[in-house]
Amino acid sequence: MEPLLLANELVKMRPFVAADVAPVFELASAREIAENTFVPHPYSREAAQEFVDRVREQWSTDEAYVFAIVDKATDAFAGAMGIHPEGKHNSATVGYWIGKPFWGRGIATAALRLLIRFGFEQLELNRIEAGHLDHNLASGRVMQKADMRYEGRRRQSQLHRGQYKDAIWYAILREDHCQGSRQ
Q: Considering the entire predicted model, what is its pTM?
């Protein structure tokens, strides 16, 4: 798929570029990111380079579409959000992280709403799902605000930093999204 820009009143989402390595390194290095995601900690500049290279390659092969999230008000890099299609089932999984300086500003919710619309309208998906570690309640609120529905708890399904953790899953269907668009 050709690179594209998604935007709303709070964020711009675009494919990653080489210049994103430095801000990825800066934001993803925070311990709080590692505590809530599977981003390694400590995080190295080399890991940031590998991440940017990998997501650019995934985009070029249509394996996944990982967007750089940019705060529209400041034009600052704020995080990453990707959608990983599973063609056989016409569904996809979403993953994301937002840099700590951007928490609590609605950026993740605004980005997720854009990504959901992209998934249904551009990728023609039927289902989009996302999960979070059980202690990351803020991520669950993001999913709820983006109209995803709670689907359940997968007990000790994630090995995170040497400990088994529960994962909480949400999903939205095309029919849910279309109904919400008409309201």
A: 0.93
Sign of CA dihedral 46, 47, 48, 50: positive
Centre a 10 Å sphere on the Cβ of residue 1 and count the other Cβ atoms it contains: 11
Q: Give residue 3's pLDDT.
A: 78
Q: Of the candidates 75, 77, 114, which has an alpha carbon nearest to the alpha carbon of residue 94?
A: 114
pLDDT in tens, 54-77: 999 999 899 999 999 999 999 999
pLDDT class of 183 with cuts at 50, 70, 90: very low
Asked whether the beta carbons of 67 and 80 are under 8 A apart, the reply is yes
Cα–Cα nearest to 20, from 86, 87, 59, 78: 78
Residue type, 157: S
Residue 181 has what pLDDT? 60
Spatial contact of 125 and 162, defined as CB atoms under 8 Å apart? no
Q: Could you tell me the two tokens for 15?
A: 């494919």
